[in-house]
Amino acid sequence: DAEGHFTYALPLVLGSQEIHLVAIDYAGNSSELKRTITRKEPLVDEIPPLIELHHPPEDYATEEEVVQLQGRVTDEGSGVQSLHLTHQTADTIHLEQTLEWDAEGHFTYALPLVLGSQEIHLVAIDYAGNSSELKRTIARKEPLRELIIRLQIGNKMATIGDRRVELPVAPQIFNNRTMVPLRFLVEAFGARVQWVAARREIQITYRDIFITLWIGETRVVIENLLDPGRPPIQKHLDVYPYLVQGTTMVPIRFISEEFDANIQWEAATQEIIIRWEP
């Protein structure tokens, strides 16, 4: 053009090749420029999308009628084309829904639940036709009006409602505090407990709350699974958790505060009565 700019659509061949430009002016002077470029075989996308389901976690159980699905779907090749949700029980499909996601792949969906065990089935497909799936089984339980648990210092036998249960370790007094078996109680409330041996860490998933404790430390960290951007809450126990024959013992105050339970102490019989309304 008038300013000397030029363009040209040059067909390429596979492999290495050279562009050679020679310019000549009206006085016969010339100059040249050479550039080597390579045309590669086109990449074939054979990697399926990645599905992450952050909530609900594995073995999630709730009494709520709706669970908020939260996750992320990504594909570094051709990109995600679709994300499909199926909600079903053993013999019935209750919902089929195509989900939407944001620019970073995050998705949310308020899923109505049925009573009992049920499966969440997610299928993602990219533009190259690759697919991946994720399945998660969760449960919706009948709501409890009140749960009454009875324990006694030095006694391995406990009751949940009218059911008798043998504890691995009896409740005990430590540093003037009543210590109770953690797993037995929180699982009675419908929470899930995991032990991370390398860090001597106890992880509790309770409804939409993630609680972390450490053996030998009074620190407790509480995170909201539905709002990962919210800063964690830190608290301190009266007495640090400790292990007895592989069982984590925690102060009863931890149960009353984190699970909003009412604790009654019968001094004459050294009996602990825990009343909990879901």
Number of beta strands: 24
Helix/strand order, N-terminal first: EEEEEEEEEEEEEEEHEEEEEEEHEE
Weakly predicted, low-confidence segments: none
Q: Between the first and last Cα atoms, what is the distance in angstroms?
A: 78 Å
- Strands side by side in the biggest sheet: 4-10-9-6-7
What is the global morphology?
Answer: elongated
Which class of secondary structure composition applies to the elements?
mainly beta
Number of helices: 2
Provide the helix percentage. under 10%
Taking all Cα atoms into account, the compactness measure Rg is 31 Å
Mean pLDDT: 93
Largest sheet: 5 strands, mixed
**Strand content bin:** over 45%
Main traits of this protein?
five-stranded antiparallel beta sheet; five-stranded mixed beta sheet; 278 residues; mainly beta; elongated
Report on this structure.
This protein has 278 residues and is mainly beta. 5% of the residues lie in helices and 54% in strands. It has helices at residues 182-188, 252-258, and strands at 15-24, 30-39, 50-55, 61-62, 66-74, 80-88, 93-98, 106-112, 116-126, 131-140, 147-152, 155-160, 163-166, 172-174, 177-181, 192-196, 201-206, 209-214, 219-224, 233-236, 242-244, 247-251, 262-266, 271-276. The strands form six sheets. It has a five-stranded mixed β-sheet with strand order 4-10-9-6-7, with no helix packed on it. It has a five-stranded antiparallel β-sheet with strand order 13-12-11-24-23, with helices on one face. The termini are far apart. The model has no long low-confidence stretch (mean pLDDT 93). The chain has two helices and 24 strands.
